[in-house]
Amino acid sequence: MNATLQILDPAGRKVGKVPKLKHEQLLRMLRAMLMTRHFDDRCMKLQRTGKIGFSIPNTGIEAVSVGAAAPLRKTDWIAPSYRDFGMALYLGVPAEAMMDNMFGNAADTGRGRQMPVHFSFVEPVRYLSISSPIGTHIPQGVGIAMAMRKRGEDGVCLISFGDGGTSSQGFHSGMNFAGVFSAPAIFLCQNNQWAISCPLDKQTASETIAIKGEAYGIPGVRVDGNDVLAVYQVVHDAVRRARAGEGPTLIEAVTMRMGGHSTSDDPTRYVDKGMLEEWREKDPLKRFRQYLLEEAVLDARQIEQLDEECAAVILEAAKAAEAKTRPPLETVFTDVYQDMPEHIRAQREWCIHHYSSRGEGVNEKGEFPL
Ligand SMILES: Cc1ncc(C[n+]2csc(CCOP(=O)(O)OP(=O)(O)O)c2C)c(N)n1
Ligand SMILES: [Mg+2]
To answer: Would you say the CB of residue 194 lies under 6 angstroms from ligand 1?
Structure first.
């Protein structure tokens, strides 16, 4: 069994070797974790008040996403899971761009074609479009890593997935290929104990998820996923190995999904209250905050101010995204072909004519509604 790396215990006390990080970096990590929690909270409220259709709770797993994003460079790639708000927020994606996706408005990079939470960014981070099917992005991420190597770049690809994702065919083929060809990939499994209502002991008979690396010739590391410094350290080491051509690493970040699977789920039907209480004590934000206070990086008032500032930024982002127009009907036909084939052009014209003739507000440019 793999030992679990911990640097901060649940009370925020140092129990391991602390990575050398500047105050600005620590602050940036705290800010991204706070932003993630507020983004999550705001999205839940927007969904419960009928303003957006769907969201994916991220509360409780902030340290995994932020700790894993922190060692990356802008030229690296991320093949994310849908529970990775913190990666985008840490790497500088504006909250408003993420809210544009939540509302599926005209400014959304996916033009409202994807579900909410299915972000896709090129700038300021190479963030592969999120896939709903579990595990399909794992071999895609390995492909990205191999492509960077073949081009002579020293980039790496961070591939993030859940405990349920390890039962997918994509996990097997991705890990196997990466192991054989030493792909510069980091496999980050966010073991949050559940795959919707399926608990970990029904997901796998393996002792740990990290141990699965052995079958593919890939080192497996287990880390406390609620300890942002420990996650940073193991991902930092894995990135260094991948960049140096030493091959991939499988990381199991042990954490807990503190909310439902999605806004369509009722976890009270299957998650034991006692289990939630136990994990609430291990809250990643509480722990990091305590550490920063003890190290005098920030005082309580500064943390409170930062928290309020993050809440305000998220609220403004939501308001701005809500106020934007919907994507025009035309966008159903754009972004696929550079030169639109004749049969698609004919469908486009039929579509615009059809909705205009029903009085459903489409102008000749395909803008909808008028
Ligand atoms: C191939 C496939 N099978 C089933 C589903 C339905 N589904 C959506 S999320 C999910 C659970 C995934 O759990 P896990 O990988 O642990 O990620 P988590 O949601 O816990 O972050 C399932 C079964 C799907 N999206 N794709
Ligand atoms: Mg899970």
So the answer is: yes
Give 339 or 360, the one with higher predicted confidence.
339
Q: Which of 257, 287, 289, 291 is catalytic?
A: 257
Measured torsion, CA atoms of residues 185, 57, 90, 109, in degrees rounded to the nearest 10:
80
Segments of the chain assigned E as strands: 4-5, 77-79, 126-127, 157-162, 185-191, 194-195, 198-199, 220-224, 249-254
According to DSSP, the β-strands at 198-199 and 194-195 are antiparallel
pLDDT digits (tens, 9 = 90+) for 254-295: 999 999 999 999 999 999 999 999 999 999 999 999 999 999
Q: Where in the chain is the domain with CATH 3.40.50.970?
A: 4-323
Q: Mark whether 261 is an active-site residue.
A: yes
pLDDT band at residue 358 under the 50/70/90 scheme = confident
How far is it, in rounded angstroms, from Cα 82 to Cα 190?
11
Is the C-beta atom of 261 inside 6 A of ligand 1?
Answer: yes
Catalytic member of 261, 287, 289, 291: 261
pTM higher than the cut 0.85: yes
For ligand 2, the distance from its centroid to the CA atom of residue 166, given in whole angstroms, is 10
Residue 270 designated active-site:
yes
In the numeric block, which tokens belong to residue 282?
């291990």
Is residue 220 within 8 A of residue 2, CB to CB? The reply is yes
The CATH class of the 4-323 domain is alpha beta
Q: Any catalytic annotation for residue 232? A: no
Q: How far apart are CA 317 and CA 100, in angstroms?
A: 9
Q: Which residues pair with 221 in a beta bridge?
A: 251
pLDDT at 370: 47
356 Cα to the center of ligand 2, angstroms: 45
Catalytic residue among 13, 73, 270, 345: 270
Ligand 1 close to Cβ of residue 38 (< 6 A): no
What residues pair up with 160 in beta bridges, in sequence order? 188
